Amino acid sequence: MTSYIDTPTKTLVTPENKTFAYRVIGTPATVPVIGLIHLSGNLDNWDPTVVDGLAKEHQLILPDYQGVGGSGGKAALTIQGMAQEIREFIHALGLKQVDLFGFSMGGFVAQEVINQEPTLIRRALLTGTGPRGGQGIGDVTKISDRSLAKAIFTFKDVKTYLFFTRTTNGKQQAAKFLKRIKARQTGRDRSIGWSAYRTQLKAINKWSTESAIDFSQLDLPVLVANGDHDAMVPTKPNSYNLAKAFKNSELVIYPDAGHAGVFQFNEEFVKKANQFLR
C-alpha cells in the first residue's frame, strides 16, 4: 500500500459545481471512512501514521473543505454549511453510506452531517471535539490568536501550543508529530488563506452559541476520543457530554495529552479505531 505521504491528490466536481481536492488511501470499500480535518487544516495536516494505520483495514477519503487547499469556492460561513458541502461531496462520489472520522472542527462538522442525514452514516469517530454549544468552544478564537502570536515570537509551529501539553513529554510528542506531517516532499497542499481561516473561526464562534443537537434517538455507534488536557475544546465536560449525547457510544481519554491526543497516542488510537470500525 502507498503511504499517505505519497498518495496523489485528486479533484472532483459535484453536480452543484463545487470542486473538491481530496486523497484516497486503502482498499476500496462499500463503506469508506470520510476524514474531516481541523480548523485551518488541509490534506497535509493529517498524521500519516494514523492514516496509514487505518488504511490497512479500511478505505479513507480525505477532502479539503471549500475555500481551503486545492478545493475551489469560498469557506462556508457556518459549521452547518460545511456539513452540507461534505454531504454533496459524499453523494458526488456515489456513496450510499460512510463512516466519519472528525478531528476538532471536523468533529463539529461530522455532528452536523449526522444531524442533517443520519442514514448516510454507519459509524463515527469524534476526536478532539465537543458538542454544539459546548463549554469553552467560544474561546477558540482567543486561544488560537494568543497561541499564534506566541508561535511567531518563538519561531515554532502554532500546533506545538494548541495540540499538545506543555509537559516534557508533550513537547517531545509535538516535535514528533510535526516531523510526521511535514514528511511529504512533493505535491503538498496549499495552506489556508487568512480570509478562509477567519471565516472558519467565525463559524466556530456561531456554533458555540447554539443549542446542543439531540442525538438521543440514534442507534449510531460513536467512538469519542481526546487527550485529558485539551486546551482548545476542554475535555471536561465536552468529551464526556458528547459521549453521553449518543446512547451507543464509547469514550477514550489519553493521559498527559492535549487536543491531538489521538495523534500523540497514534498506535493505541489506530488499534482502537480499527476495532471499532470493524
TrEMBL record:
Pfam families on file: Abhydrolase_1
Name this protein carries in UniProt: Alpha/beta fold hydrolase
UniProt-listed PANTHER family: MONOACYLGLYCEROL LIPASE (PTHR43798), MONOACYLGLYCEROL LIPASE ABHD6 (PTHR43798:SF5)
Gene3D superfamilies reported for this sequence: alpha/beta hydrolase
A single GO molecular function term of this UniProt record: hydrolase activity
Superkingdom of origin: Bacteria
UniProt keyword list: Hydrolase
Domain AB hydrolase-1: start-end pairs: 40-263
Transmembrane segment boundaries: none
